[in-house]
Amino acid sequence: MREKIEAVLKKLYGITMSVAFFGGVLPLIPFLIAMIIGGGEGGTGETIAVWLYKQYYPWVIALASIAVVIGLIAMYVGRQEAMSTKAFKTSAAKADK
Question: pTM for the full model?
Answer without folding.
Answer: 0.70
